[in-house]
Design goal:
Helices cover 35% and strands 17% of the residues. It is built from 9 helices and 14 strands. The strands form 4 sheets. The protein has a 7-stranded mixed beta sheet, with helices on both faces. The longest helix has 21 residues, at 254-274.
C-alpha cells in the first residue's frame, strides 16, 4: 500500500511504532490475554500505565514534585472553563491570538473580570501581539502557544509576576521550553501527544485552593489529583497511546525533535516564499513550526492544486474555512520525506 502523507491538523499523525504498540495492546494488554479496552482501569497493569504516563511528563518537562500531572476528559475546551473556575477569584489577563484563546476568554468571563491585554483579531489573527505588559494584580495570565487555524506560534513567552497558564495543545513537546516557568499547562492529546480522548493538565500545586467559590467535584483539579486521574474511569486507550508517544519522545529528546521540526518547517516555508504562485498568510516572525498556512495567489486554481496533492497521496492539506487556502500540519511524527513530497508538488504545479 502506497504511503499517505498525512498533514491533518488533528487527530494527527502518530509514530508508526506507537500505532503498532497500541494495536498489540488491543489484542493482548501487558500479557493479560485481555484487550486494553476491556481491562479494569484499577488493575495493577493499567495503574502502572497511568503512573508511568504521569512520571514521564515530569521527566521530559524537567519539573519537580511541586507539580501534579493529570489526564482528564473533555478536551482542551473543558480547560477553558476549569482554569477559570479553579483559579479566577477577581480578574485575569488573556492574550488573544486566535479561535481557541477567544473561546477561553468567553468561558472565563463567567467567573470574573477578564482583561484582554492584546489581540491580533484586527488582522484575522495573522500575527502575535508583542507590545503589552502583564500587571501584578491579576490572578493569572493566559496564553495559547500555537494557533492551528491561523498558523502562528509564540516563539518566546512574556515575563510575568503572576501565574502563567498556557494552552499548549498543538505544539507540546515539539521544542525545548523552560516548562518550570509555567504554573499550569494543558493540552488536548490529539495534536502532538497521542490519540484523541484525553487531555493533559500539569499544574503547580501552590496555585490551587485560591478561590472562594464552590467548585463542582468533577471540575475541581484537587479531585483528580487526589485520585491519581482515576476519580472516574479514564480514557484507557488514549492514556496508553500517550504513554507510548511519551516513550518515543523521551528516547529522542526534545533537542533532536526540535531540530527535526525546524528542518521540516524551513523546507516548506522556503518553497512558499520562493514560489511566486503561493504566499504565506502569517507574519514571518510568528510563523508556526507546527501548522504552515498558505494560499494560492490565484484562488481559482485551488481545486487543481488539491487534485495534484491527492494524486501525490497527500491528505489533510485543505485550509480551515477561517483562513482558506491550505494548511500543512507538521507535528512531531511527520516525516521530512512527506514535506519533500508536498514541496515537489508545489514546484511541479508552478
Amino acid at each position: 500500500m502506497k504511503q499517505i502523507h498525512n498533514f491533518s491538523a488533528g487527530p494527527a499523525i502518530l509514530p508508526q511504532e506507537v500505532i503498532q504498540n497500541c494495536s498489540d495492546a488491543l489484542h493482548n494488554f501487558s500479557g493479560t490475554n485481555l484487550s486494553l479496552i476491556e481491562v479494569s482501569h484499577r488493575s495493577k497493569e493499567f495503574v502502572a500505565v497511568m503512573d508511568e504516563a504521569q512520571s514521564l511528563v515530569k521527566k521530559i518537562m524537567n519539573i519537580g514534585e511541586d507539580y501534579e500531572v493529570m489526564y482528564l476528559q473533555g478536551g482542551a475546551s473543558s480547560q477553558f472553563l476549569m482554569v477559570a473556575m479553579n483559579l479566577l477569584e477577581t480578574k485575569a489577563a488573556y492574550l488573544n491570538t486566535g479561535t481557541w484563546s477567544t473561546k477561553a476568554i468567553k468561558e472565563a468571563k463567567h467567573f470574573g473580570q477578564i482583561d484582554e491585554l492584546a489581540s491580533s483579531a484586527d488582522k484575522n489573527f495573522n500575527y502575535i501581539p508583542k507590545d503589552y505588559k502583564i500587571g501584578s494584580d491579576y490572578d493569572y495570565f493566559h496564553c495559547t502557544s500555537n494557533n492551528t487555524i491561523f498558523g502562528t506560534q509564540l516563539h518566546t513567552f512574556p515575563t510575568s509576576s503572576v501565574p502563567v497558564i498556557c494552552d499548549m495543545s498543538s505544539d507540546i513537546f515539539s521544542r525545548q521550553i523552560d516548562f518550570s516557568s509555567f504554573d499550569l499547562i494543558y493540552a488536548g492529546a490529539q495534536k502532538n501527544m497521542g490519540p484523541a480522548g484525553t487531555t493533559l493538565v500539569v499544574v503547580k500545586k501552590e496555585i490551587l485552593n485560591s478561590v472562594s467559590r464552590y467548585i463542582p467535584t468533577m471540575l475541581d483539579y484537587n479531585t483528580h489529583i487526589d485520585k491519581g486521574s482515576m476519580f472516574n474511569t479514564p480514557s484507557v486507550f488514549a492514556v496508553y497511546g500517550c504513554l507510548q508517544t511519551l516513550k518515543w519522545i523521551d528516547n529522542q529528546g526534545l533537542e533532536q525533535i526540535e531540530n527535526y521540526n525546524n528542518q521540516k518547517a524551513d523546507l516548506l516555508y522556503s518553497e512558499i516564499d520562493q514560489n511566486d504562485m503561493f504566499e504565506g498568510t502569517t507574519a514571518r516572525e510568528d510563523r508556526s513550526k507546527m501548522n504552515a498556512t498558505f494560499v494560492l495567489k490565484d484562488d481559482s486554481l485551488n481545486a487543481s492544486f488539491l487534485d495534484a496533492c491527492s494524486e501525490a497521496k497527500i491528505s489533510g492539506i485543505k485550509g480551515h474555512r477561517s483562513v482558506g487556502g491550505f494548511r500543512a500540519s507538521m507535528y512531531n511524527a511527520m516525516r521530512l520525506e512527506s514535506v519533500k513530497v508536498l514541496v515537489d508538488v508545489m514546484k511541479n504545479f508552478k
